[in-house]
Amino acid sequence: MSRPVIGVTTSNRSGWRIFPLVAFNIWLAGGRAVRWGAGRAADVKTVDGIIIGGGDDISPDLYGGQIVASARLDPDRDALERGLVDDALAHDTPVLGICRGSQMLNVALGGSLHQDGYGVYERSDFVRTILPKKTVLIETGTRLAQLSGTDPMRVNALHTQAVDRLGDELRIAARDQGGMVQAIERLTDPFAIGVQWHPEHLFYAHRQRALFRALVCAAAARRDNSGQIDAVTADRAANSTDG
């Protein structure tokens, strides 16, 4: 059977080096990636799942926030990705948000962001590295806990923005030790999880590969069952192998 196709949005600045790494993780999980971005054709109906990738900051115009001088904005990408999240949920297409992608999932569902997350959460460790040097605490009873367990998880971090007010039908799935939100997820199908870290750099860790497996399994279930995704079955399938 053919591999589920996953559309991956990228930054026009850094996508050339990030997309191959995300595509590698998707391939390990049993899927096939196609690259999307501002100026590239992107249609949810042509894929089985989507990843909203990391990179640029999200403009506060989308949620009524205040701009900060250090923000790197791409309004065209903002418009593309917000529309893709809306279309994905309307078509029962599973979504994984990575860093900026997690924030976009929250904003698209009516939430808001802290422009300076570490200024608000002063007890959170300010870490900017692709190495797993930050500890996150996973909430029990969440889909993320089903995928990765509830033991403290070591992750990387490159972000400055952070989730403030939660969007509709979302819940917090993980926080760091200072209380900053590090993962969110949708309460109902379709599968939609956003993580503040970059699991694509941590492909050697089975708890990180589980995120990509879960997305690909949900995408395959949607394709093979005409959009009817059994969340428990997809999660079990994602955990059936170690990579």
Structure description:
The model is unreliable at 227-233 (pLDDT under 50). A hairpin with a 4-residue loop joins strand 9 (170-176) and strand 10. The protein is α/β, with parallel strands linked by helices. It contains seven helices and eleven strands. It has a single domain, classed as Class I glutamine amidotransferase (GATase) domain (Rossmann fold), CATH 3.40.50. The strands form two sheets. It has a nine-stranded mixed β-sheet, with helices on both faces. Strands 5-8 form a two-stranded antiparallel ribbon. The chain has helices at 15-28, 75-90, 100-108, 117-120, 143-148, 206-224, 231-238; strands at residues 5-9, 32-36, 49-52, 95-98, 113-114, 129-138, 153-157, 162-163, 170-176, 181-186, 192-195.
Structure summary:
By secondary structure, this protein is of the alpha/beta class. It contains 7 helices and 11 strands.
Tell me the layout of helices and strands.
Layout: E1 5-9, H1 15-28, E2 32-36, E3 49-52, H2 75-90, E4 95-98, H3 100-108, E5 113-114, H4 117-120, E6 129-138, H5 143-148, E7 153-157, E8 162-163, E9 170-176, E10 181-186, E11 192-195, H6 206-224, H7 231-238
Helix pairs in contact: 2-3, 6-7
Q: What key phrases describe this protein's structure?
A:
two-stranded antiparallel sheet, Rossmann fold, single chain, alpha/beta, about 240 residues
Biggest sheet: strand arrangement: 2-1-3-4-11-10-9-6-7
- Please report the number of helical segments: 7
CATH superfamily descriptor: Class I glutamine amidotransferase (GATase) domain
- Mean pLDDT, rounded to whole units? 88
The CATH level-2 architecture is identified as 3-Layer(aba) Sandwich
CATH topology: Rossmann fold
Q: Classify the beta-strand content into a percent band.
A: 15-25%
Supply the helix-strand structural class.
alpha/beta
Cα radius of gyration in angstroms: 16 Å
Instruction: Write the element-wise H/E pattern from the N-terminal end onward.
Output: EHEEHEHEHEHEEEEEHH
Categorize the overall geometry: globular
Q: Work out the count of structural domains.
A: 1
Highest-level CATH class: Alpha Beta
* Major beta-sheet overview: 9 strands, mixed
Distance between the termini: 19 Å
Which percent bin holds the helix content?
A: 25-40%
Uncertain parts:
227-233
Number of strands: 11
